[in-house]
Structure formats: structure tokens, C-alpha cells
Amino acid sequence: MKNIYLIGVGLIGGSFAIDIKKNNPETVIYGIDANEDHLDEALAIGIIQEKAVLDDIEKADLVIVSIPVDATVKLLPTILDKISDTGLVVDAGSTKEAICKAVEHHPKRRNYLACHPIAGTENSGPTAAISGLYVGKTNIICEVEKTTFKLQEKALKLFTEIGMRIRYMDAVSHDKHIAYVSHLSHISAFMLGKTVIDKERNERDIFDMAGSGFRSTVRLAKSSPAMWTPIFEQNKENVIETLEEYISNLQHFKKLMEQDNFSEIFNEMENTNYIKQILNGIN
Ligand SMILES: O=C(O)C(=O)C[C@]1(C(=O)O)C=C[C@@H](O)C=C1
After folding, report:
1. Is the CB of residue 120 below 6 angstroms from any atom belonging to ligand 1?
2. Is the pTM of this model over 0.90?
């Protein structure tokens, strides 16, 4: 993989670039981004070695697409139009069904591998990129059988070299499960943040009284609306289902409070403590 093109030089693409370059110093990383300031930053901090434009990707051995999912749906067919017969295109989108659909009949579909690295932070842009972001993290690969075997192998080598685990899934299941585990968490954090901002009008009180509990629970409310709005739009049906479940649990909790049923509240919390085993057990 000599020539790697990043489409989107932010946290996700940038973190891939840093560790791939570390493992393969001879690789040249080119950057393409709608945001000129981001391109300049990425160049200045060494995430990319050169700026490029879309027409250049005919020279790419690998293209990593990490831009908002609405932009991915629009741009992926054009990227595949331009990729060479031996070039590999991977994306990092948080939704998979709409993205896979956008290229399902493309003549170069076999050059594309649908990926979702389950890694990130609430920060964005090239300066948020970090080495080691992907170590021990899972990369969900969808519709793997639609990608040329040789290119699957190349991608696998690349991802495992930077410490990732691979899990295969179909795109529909991916979107259903990720709505619960990732998308709902973001809505919950955004609306928790909103509730506190709306009701606690004194910013000094929020600052002084926000311990690590509030800070860690609301962390995701610092995430980029430009990234998350199209995710919610593309995964609307699944996200609404998760919201219905969540709202019903919140209402249940409220009802138990109104009924002074604190023994049941205790039970609900004790049962939910099981999340600790689930999250520790798998790691
Ligand atoms: O940890 C975070 O800050 C993230 O938002 C990472 C996170 C998530 O876990 O929900 C967010 C979106 C990506 O699609 C994958 C991972």
C-alpha cells in the first residue's frame, strides 16, 4: 500500500494515517477534505504528506473515506468511478445500510469494503487524531462477500496491524444493533446536557457541581452535530425504536418514584449493574 488517500482528514481518518504510517514508513498519505483549514492542519502536524484532489485517486492503492455519512453516500459512487482495478476503498461510516445501498450496483462494487471502526472520541478535526486509537477496538465489516478476496486480505492485514479486531455482520443487523449501543447513547447525552442547560441557568453552578459522574455521562453531548444529524437521518427507523424503549424505561422509573416503590428501583438498578460484567467480560 504505497499511496494512501484520506478523504476526510479528521479524528478517524487522521488516526488511521498516524498508525499506518508508523507501521509502513514508505507509504505516502495524501489528504482530500472540503475544509481547507483541516487540510492545512493535517499537513502541518504530519498526518498527511501531501494535499490532493479527487481526480488523483486513480493512483491510490487505498482510499479511506471518513466523512459524515450523508457525504459518504453522495461521494462513494464517484470515488469508485475513479479507483483503479486494483485499488481498495474502505469507509468508516457509523451507518452501513444506506452506504452499501448507494453502491450496490456500481461496476466497481468489488473494490469497496464496508467498515465501521467502533472507536472515536467526542472531539473532531485533525488535531483530535491520536496514535493507538484503534488498538483493541472492533472493526465491523459488512457484506464482506461483495469485496474481491485479494482486497479483503489487504484490508484485514492493514486493520490487524494497527491492533483491530474484526467482526463480520450484515448491514441491516449492524444498523439495528448500533442504534442501541451507540446512537441512543448520543441522544441520551445530548438531551441530558439540554435538560441541565435549560433548567440550571447558572453556568457557575453547573461548572462547580459537575463531578466526574455528570462529565462522563454528558461527554458525548460535545460531539459534532454535522456528524450526528445524518447518522440519525439514515438510521431513523431503528433510532426511533430505541427511543421508544428508552422513554418507556424512563417513564417506568418515574412511576416507581411516584409510587414510592424504592425496593423495585433498587432491583432495577441491581439488575442493570450486570452491564459491568458484559463490558468487562468481553474485553
Ligand atoms: O467514544 C466516543 O466518543 C464515540 O462517540 C465513539 C463511537 C461510539 O462508541 O458511539 C461513536 C461513533 C462511531 O461510529 C463509533 C464509536
Report:
1. yes
2. yes
